Amino acid sequence: MSNEILNYDKVAEASLAKAKRDGAETMWDRKAAQKTQCGFGEAGVCCRICAMGPCRVSPVPGKGAERGICGANADTIVARNFARMIAGGASAHSDHARDIVHAMHATKAEGPFKIRDEAKLRRISAEWGIEGADTKETYALAHELAEMALGEFGKPFGTQRFLKRAPQARQDVWEREDIAPRAIDMEVTTLMHSTHMGCASDYESIFRRGMRTGMADGWGGSMIGTEFSDILYGTPTAKASSSNLGVIDKDQVNILIHGHDPNLAEMIVLAAENPEFIEMAKAKGAKGINIVGMCCTGNEMTMRHGIKIAGNFYQQEMCIITGAIEAVVVDVQCIFPALPALAKKYHTRFISTSEKAKIAGDMFIKFSEATGLDNANEIIKIAVENFPNRDASKVEIPDIKQDTLVGYSVEAIIDHLDKVVNTNTSDAMGTVKPLTDVIYAGVIRGAAGVVGCNNPKVEHDYAHVTVLKELIKRDVICVVTGCAAQAAAKAGLLTLEAKEMCGRGLKEVCERVNIPPVLHMGSCVDISRILHLVNLCADVKGIDPALLPVVGIAPEWMSEKAVAIANYVVGSGINTYLGIIPQVLGSPNFTKLMTEDCQEFLGAHFVFEKDPLVMVDKIMVDLEDKRTALGI
Ligand code: SF4
Ligand code: MSK
Hints:
By secondary structure, the chain is an alpha/beta fold. The chain has four domains: about 10-55, no CATH class; about 75-235, Substrate Binding Domain Of Dnak, Chain:A, Domain 2 (Up-down Bundle); about 245-395, 3-Layer(aba) Sandwich (Rossmann fold); about 405-630, Rossmann fold (3-Layer(aba) Sandwich), CATH 3.40.50. Helices cover about 50% and strands about 10% of the residues. It contains 24 helices and 16 strands. A six-stranded parallel β-sheet has the order 6-5-4-7-8-9. A six-stranded parallel β-sheet has the order 13-12-11-14-15-16, sandwiched between helices. The protein has a two-stranded antiparallel sheet with strand order 1-2. The radius of gyration is 24 Å and the shape is globular. The N and C termini lie far apart (about 50 Å). Iron/sulfur cluster binds near residues 70, 72 and 197.
């Protein structure tokens, strides 16, 4: 077990020592067993797209095999591998969105799945051109909008409807470069076809197709996922929560919800309020039922209900190791296949709920919209009945938790801005103009979206927190989602008190608007909220968002979804900084295309930088260059 990259995390050492005592295996044991990771894979030059392979070409030009059996060179192999990561990521986000839309299609006035933000339902229906959007009966309209949204996945003609949210200048770039995404499934399928053996070998062409598929994620799947979840479960508003493993309560039945899709988790949160279950828990010797969240199911639930955040991706094993979790309930994505075996070391029941993420060794309860509340009731019962099986000698919950503020949807941010708008001036209410104004005035130097996972290649949370602290110190306002948001929560950056860590300008803005300097905007699909916010800011000035002093950052990413995200953020004109180097360095041409040449035709590029402090320096130069170019 190698602990040298865990020093930053205050709970890691004790948790891993306990795992050892309990004879439980963790990701660190498995990482050690992997020994040195494959250099060909790391450079992206291993191809196993057809059964003549696998072929691996030299990551160093001029040394060793330069082509696979079919003749594909490093440029082609790297480009294809990268593109297939985008296809995987876009599929995950978009298929998640499709499930949300299906849930909306199943809504009824009297069912547990109902419309909770009717105003947003009507707004988006009008945005998508439904006639009578303001007068139609709520559920008839919801079903009509859901059917229209399902069309976004497979319609034979046209591009994604939400693209119109971007200023015209950006839409023109997409049209000119042919990266405006068509139907989501079509983009994924075309990319898989294009990267099939014997199809595209031109690395720039593959890059462009990958970019369009990434765009189908950001402006299609993810944006639909976010907006339709809001319609179904309510648009988040600012609220308090708390974070880190200390939110697990030794006196209560603890249920960990983990994954990404809020459909079942919403039902669990609803069911847990049932007084009958609370009485049942008391009869078993517990004080109540404590739902805690992890990864993006946790984010979805904290954004809408203030559900406590047990931790981020890397802490999923640590939760179980506390010995105090009665049930881990998972839906889709970012779930370690190792969890069922780990759960068996304790009394924890591991319950998977989606056929798309059926996990070997689990207990499986199939979720569907028709049975959602029954599924949730069954899960709560299993957890409550499991409470007496807890082994007190194995319970050790780190005494560490941090208060946090969450729930900053675009609407919640505008609401906060409205409270400081001087109604005696011509300032419009209900817009992001005050935010754009403080950026233009230089009170804030720019904005950064910090997102993404944890990755055992780097110190847990260190890059997230370092980048965030250094940016707010330099008057850059930050928005966060995913596991980066949970890192920020644990570090106390999502609090009003965090203004004390800011530069003078940002501190003043935080005080006037009554917000933390780092705003939790939600789950991974909710990066679409960030996209929307940036485009609204650009719209205020009537400019391409590529001109704004704004950056995207994924300091510790690991998943294919992050690759899709990085692509749509760059495709949307925002320079994107990656703290983990993607597996592309085996092709200097493809690397140059990503980090330099695409600036030419997209107005943005990728930056690879492992050192968070150096990354911040580069970001500040980037932001100041943008300011100079704008003359602000
Ligand atoms: Fe090898 Fe070409 Fe087949 Fe890839 S597609 S495995 S490079 S023969
Ligand atoms: S959960 S995709 S580890 S951010 Fe969205 Fe965290 Fe990354 Fe999963």
